[in-house]
Structure formats: structure tokens, C-alpha cells
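Hey team,

Filing this mostly as a record. A colleague (T.K.) asked me to run one chain through the structure pipeline before their review meeting, and I want the input and output archived in the tracker in case anyone asks later how it was produced. No errors, nothing strange. Just documentation.

Input sequence:
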Amino acid sequence: MTNVLITGMGAISPLGADRRQSFAAALAGRCAIGRAAPDIAQWLPQVLTAPAAAEPSSLLDPRCAGLDRATQFALVAANEALCDAGIAAHPDDARRIGVYVGIGFGGAQTVDALYARLQQTLRDNGNPAVMHPLSVPRMMANAAAAAVSMQYGLHGPSYTYSVACASSAVAIGEAFRAIRDGYLDAAVVIGAEAMLTPGAMLAWNALRVMAKPDADDVSRSCRPFAKGRSGFVLGEGAAAIVLESETRARSRAQAALGEVCGYGCSSDASHLTAPSSEEQVTAMRQALAQAGLEPGDIQYLNAHGTATEAGDVVETASIRAAFGAAAERLAVSSTKSMHGHLIGASGILEFVLSVMAMNAGALPPTATLDEPDPRCDLDFVPRTARHDCEVSAIMSNSFAFGGSNVSLVARRHD
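Output structure:
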């Protein structure tokens, strides 16, 4: 087994067009949440969204214009991460480099466009069988993985994980295992989501988990761990990391941004949407054990923290159970308060922000936590960031509908 290093990272998120902009905005406590676009608001006037800070097509070659928006996001994040890692297209060891992608609902934009075209065709008494010939390749779940592998000439395995809110966290964990155990020497791991469409938003709204607009400031409507929280806000974007074996990174003198050292996963096997504290605890304990760390060795935890009534209380209890007495000294925050919930991309975006926090010694806040729920009694870094912190190891949690739980641990690598 080998150590698995993080040698590159990238992001395009509601907080910024790249990872550095995103992290700076998170430290500033800037909330990127606002009213939905007109095509959504006409049906759901109270629904909020967190759109990406930049149009992905503007950051790509014009030939990518025909790709689904989620795939465009994936390419932008992957481009930044691979450039950060100093990896060019068509590397000599391309068969030893894999592509791992997490996505909740691939091709949402394409699917909505198909329905709109179908409706218009029927209204015009046209032929509904006439559709764009590339509709299926655009909306298939593995479109992003295929696009990245083709653009960079990466011939290793290409996998796509769709595990709701845990999708990209699973992708990180599985890529970590493949490199650690010698199946690969490197991997590009990506999480992407572009679900801000009328159809998807109508479906999410039916679940009754969406935040209500704050009367004073709609940007502060997502309030994880706060008294009176009302749910989450959907966001869009992508993040990516490059993982390499220590041997490969050393062979090309590539500096490491950190080391992935722990991956825990479990399934509730009990309820489609209600979380299980017992299995969340299992995932966190597995990740710590695999990393060879004690609870007190973790200084910062990026919580799943979706601002739902049950989810935040259960996660608080789970962290207390997993960390024991060390929970009193643990800094925890939910950056979803600022960038919203990116579903399949949330896990990796939050992991990237956590690794950046570790390297900067600065912890992003739960920006909207004005009045904590008494049942959520951990140190949730309320309202403002903390600077000059000593952080040697972090944990990031992702807990999904369907009962999938993932915890990741990373530490400094000197």
C-alpha cells in the first residue's frame, strides 16, 4: 500500500469561478443564494437557488458548447485541477491514470430541454420523433467522465458514481482505495451537478426540504444548525482533485496539498430520506481508524449540514458519539450556508474547501448561524471565519438520501 497525495484541485462554484475565489468567498462569509431564475420562478416564486459564479461555456473551448451544463462544469474543474498538478494531456502513463466522477442527476439540462422541445413539437403538430441525435450521449450519467478522459487522453478506468448527496465523496474514496492498493498510480476525481432546471426544481420542491426565503436577506436563507432553519438551497457547479501515489508525485517533484488517509462508508438500510445516527457514526469511525488517527487529531470537520430539521440534529449527535470528549474541542462548520447544496458535487467541493482551510489555517464559517438550535450544541464556527488556526487533519462528511454515509479524512503531508 502507498500513501495517496492530493497534487491538484479545482472548482467552479456559486462562490467563485475557481477554487481560490471560492475559498476566499467562503472565508469572507459571502452567501451566493438568491431568487430563482424566471423559468423556475414562474412556477415556484418562493424557491431560492445558488447558481455558479461563472458560465462554464465561457471558460471552455467553443467546441464544448454542445455538451450538457454538468459536463461543462466538470471540464472546467478538471482543467484547473490538472493544471494545478502539472499534468498535461496524453501523459506517458495514461493507462495508470483513472477518471472518477460523482454526479446526482447527469444531464438535467438536456432532459429538460428534451421535454420542452417535445411539448413545442406537439403544439406545432410536428413530429415528436425528431430530436437531436446526440441527446443520449449528452444526458448519460457518465458523460462527464467520458469528456475528461477523452480531452486528456487518460486510458485508465473511468467510473461514475451516482449516490445522491454522497456521489463525489464516494468517488474520492474509491479512487483513494485504487491508488493505495496499487491498481492505479493517479486519478482525476470530479463532482459535478447542474440541476437548476424547472423540472428538477419542481421535483425537489415536492419533497418539502427547500429553504424558505429569509424576510430580511434572501442570501441568508439557508441556516444549518440554527433555530428556525427551514431547509437547503440547491446550487450548481463542480470541483475536482488530482490524486497520486507518493511514488509518482515524488518522481516528478510535485508538491502535495495534502494526503487522503481515511475513507469510511456505511448504509442505513432503514429509510429513504430519514438519517441514521448509528451509521453516520460508523462511517466517521471507519475513516478515523483507516487514517490511524484518534478523534482528537482532527481539528476541523466540514459537516453535511443541510439545514433540515432532522438532519442537523442527527448529525450533531453522530459527531458527539464518534468524537467523544474530543467533540468539545472540534471546530465544525457547514459551508452549504454559503454555496448551497450541490448534491453530487457537494462532497468534493466541501472536501476541497476543507483541504484549503487546513493549508491556510483558516476555517470557513457557518455564515448564517445567528441563533443556534439548543440541540445543535457543537462549535459550529458561527457567522465569521477563524484565522491563525493550527490544523493538521480534517474530516468531511457527506450523508445521502437512500441512507449512504461517507466520511473522508485528509492530513498535511510535509
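Quick notes for T.K.: The chain has a mean pLDDT of 95. The domain at 4-106+141-411 is CATH 3.40.47.10 (Peroxisomal Thiolase; Chain A, domain 1).
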